[in-house]
């Protein structure tokens, strides 16, 4: 493949980010390299990378133990967009004495590397750019390959910059935010750090009131004036959802009930992990990683009660009881919200079951979940 054809393929990644691994392999072939990658690494060693023809098993070992290896360290003082031959910046044979070489490089036949930093991938003192890895034979022609790569660097940089910008639209939070904005329930998007990157109007109103949940100074979700046990449960649930989104766990968090100092019905917080973006490096663009739904039974119950009353001939109080219980409240909490005795709640609930034709709270909850939204409830009593 000649250089002009390769440049055309590089820019083809703009239209299809899924082609980056293929293009990395084609560049590796052009350079006489075993394989390559494009990555961004935080100062703490968190890696986001796209690999081309490198061992997945060895890539995991690299990410877990060797991100700040001798080759990465020599790049700290190298200007961006400049291609270097990694071993030229180390004492002769130094790389072969490292555990990084024994565990990651040697099993793949890698003995040298061509590396270049890219500005858009350098974050907070971290490291990021392109790397292509040479065998012993390829290392003999490293300078020639470095010159070839240097001519490609401007095109790689432009294509990657546009790909990253496309991620802000196609893979970023904008599409999810648009969906959230038409949802009647309070909903938030959290990034990989657990910071709120979008809150719809219902969530802004709810959190602004500080009644159970609020924003903290960093824009993260935080409990306000509630039991410490609830604070810990929320933190754990959000952390677990982030772990699932990052692929570090498969255990889904249970919904968390949040007490409200005002005495209103408790909120129910449901963290939902989101699938990873199509292009791994889009995670650097503050993409949403967890969707947080906040269910406010007292807000929902008016609409649900109105529909239940009309559909099943319930009385006003029966409809309110059915709406609250079906939204997740227990009998005592429902009694507290409505100002009636728990025994009265049981009586009304039994009548609701009979009129609706169901036998359990689970069936009631399924009916409530399937109801359309009525933004102007009427006759709820």
Strand percent estimate? 15-25%
Number of E-state strands: 12
Helix/strand structural class? alpha+beta
Low-confidence stretches: 374-381
Main pleated-sheet profile: 5 strands, antiparallel
Number of domain modules: 3
Cα-to-Cα separation, first versus last residue = 76 Å
How many whole angstroms does the radius of gyration measure? Answer: 28 Å
Coarse shape: elongated
User: Treating each run of at least 4 consecutive H or I residues as one helix, how many helices?
Assistant: 15
List the helices and strands in order: HHEEHHEHEEHHHEEHEEHEEEHHHHH
Give the CATH H-level superfamily of the largest domain: Transcription factor LuxR-like, autoinducer-binding domain
CATH T-level fold name of the largest domain: Beta-Lactamase
CATH class of the largest domain: Alpha Beta
Overall helicity: 40-55%
Return the average pLDDT rounded to an integer. 84
The CATH architecture term of the largest domain is 2-Layer Sandwich
Strands in their spatial order, largest beta sheet: 2-1-5-4-3
Q: How would you summarize this macromolecular structure in one to three sentences?
A:
The chain is 45% helix and 16% strand. It has 381 residues and is an alpha+beta fold. The longest helix has 30 residues, at 142-171.
Record the SSE blueprint.
Layout lengths: L2 H10 L7 H12 L3 E7 L5 E6 L3 H10 L4 H5 L9 E2 L13 H7 L6 E6 L9 E8 L1 H4 L2 H30 L1 H9 L4 E5 L5 E4 L1 H8 L3 E4 L5 E4 L3 H18 L10 E3 L8 E7 L16 E6 L1 H16 L3 H11 L4 H8 L3 H15 L4 H10 L11
Antiparallel strand pairs: 1-2, 1-5, 3-4, 4-5, 6-7, 6-12, 8-9, 10-11, 11-12
Helix pairs in contact: 1-2, 1-7, 3-5, 11-12, 12-13, 12-14, 12-15, 13-14
């Amino acid at each position: 493949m000649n250089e002009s054809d390769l440049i055309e393929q590089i820019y083809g990644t703009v239209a299809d980010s899924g082609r980056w691994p293929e293009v990395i392999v084609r560049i590796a072939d052009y350079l006489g390299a075993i394989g390559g990658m494009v990555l961004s690494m935080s100062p703490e060693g968190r890696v986001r990378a796209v690999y081309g023809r490198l061992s997945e098993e060895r890539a995991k070992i690299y990410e877990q133990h060797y991100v700040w290896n001798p080759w990465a360290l020599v790049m700290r003082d190298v200007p961006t967009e400049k291609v270097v031959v990694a071993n030229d910046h180390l004492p002769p044979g130094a790389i072969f004495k490292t555990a990084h070489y024994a565990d990651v490089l040697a099993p793949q036949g890698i003995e040298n590397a061509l590396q270049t930093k890219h500005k858009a991938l350098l974050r907070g003192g971290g490291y990021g750019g392109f790397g292509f890895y040479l065998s012993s034979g390829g290392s003999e022609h490293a300078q020639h390959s470095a010159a070839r790569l240097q001519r490609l660097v401007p095109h790689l940089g432009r294509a990657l910059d546009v790909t990253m910008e496309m991620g802000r639209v196609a893979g970023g939070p904008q599409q999810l935010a648009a969906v959230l904005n038409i949802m009647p329930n309070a909903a938030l998007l959290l990034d990989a750090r657990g910071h709120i990157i979008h809150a719809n109007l219902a969530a802004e109103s709810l959190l602004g009131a500080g009644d159970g949940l609020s924003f903290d100074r960093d824009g993260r979700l935080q409990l306000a004036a509630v039991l410490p046990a609830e604070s810990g449960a929320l933190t754990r649930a959000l952390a677990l959802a982030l772990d699932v989104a990052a692929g570090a766990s498969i255990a889904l968090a249970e919904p968390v009930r949040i007490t409200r100092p005002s005495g209103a019905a408790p909120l129910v917080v449901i963290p939902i992990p989101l699938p990873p973006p199509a292009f791994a490096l889009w995670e650097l663009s503050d993409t949403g990683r967890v969707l947080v739904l906040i269910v406010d039974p007292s807000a929902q119950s008016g609409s649900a009660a109105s529909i239940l009353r009309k559909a099943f001939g319930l009385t006003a109080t029966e409809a309110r009881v059915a709406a609250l219980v079906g939204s997740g409240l227990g009998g005592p909490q429902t009694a507290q919200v409505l100002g009636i005795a728990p025994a009265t709640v049981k009586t009304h609930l039994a009548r609701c079951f009979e009129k609706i034709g169901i036998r359990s709270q689970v069936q009631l909850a399924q009916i409530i979940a399937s109801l359309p939204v009525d933004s102007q409830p009427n006759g709820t009593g």
